[in-house]
Design goal:
Length: 242
Amino acid sequence: MEKTALITGAAKRLGKEMANHLASQGWNIAIHYHTSEDDAIQLRDELAKFYPDQQFALFRADLNQAEQVENLIPQVYREMKRLDLLINNASVFESSLLGRTTTEFFNRQINVNFRAPFILLRDFASLIKHGVIVNFVDTRIVTNQSSFAAYSLSKKSLWEMTKMAALEFGPNIRVNAIAPGLTLPPEEKGEDYLWKLAGNVAMKRPGGLDPILKSLDYILKNDYLTGQILFCDGGENLGVTN
């Protein structure tokens, strides 16, 4: 039986890779995007070409706007007729020390990185009632470094919600988290940026996309796993090596 996944931020980077990965396994994909319309259209068309018997559709929503987020799950369900997997992947990653974080900046980080996943998770549980939710957090949740203060707080909150939701929504809905580390460089930087940072982690190298995709597969296949987090960070969460 075909299954359908909604991936937020699916048009580019990790979201796009997960869309391709799941499509290759027979999944229908609801491709969420906000500003990356051209990339989203290109992804949809490429997936439809390679997998003509599957369903791929676009859904635009500004995750900073609550009313648009609240419409997303019902729209996907109406158009695609079913929904089995929600991947809360989209986020904004911007630096600011705690003491320099404006209210507007804080609200944007919290709205996109925490409030939107909260709404989608809540609506998935209410409307769909059965399936799997995967929340993308960050290896930063284990530290108290404040260089990305609002971002880190939003991801810490998302991890806490993951556990709470797993307890409330089980057994019909499993909720887990993935915490990437050195996966992809920022769009304005190259691979050398990651290799420089990798000198401080246990594995001494960036992880790339493969560990993330393997972790997603593990969560989907292990039907007794809920309320857990997989750190795909080469040991970064353990601390800095000597």
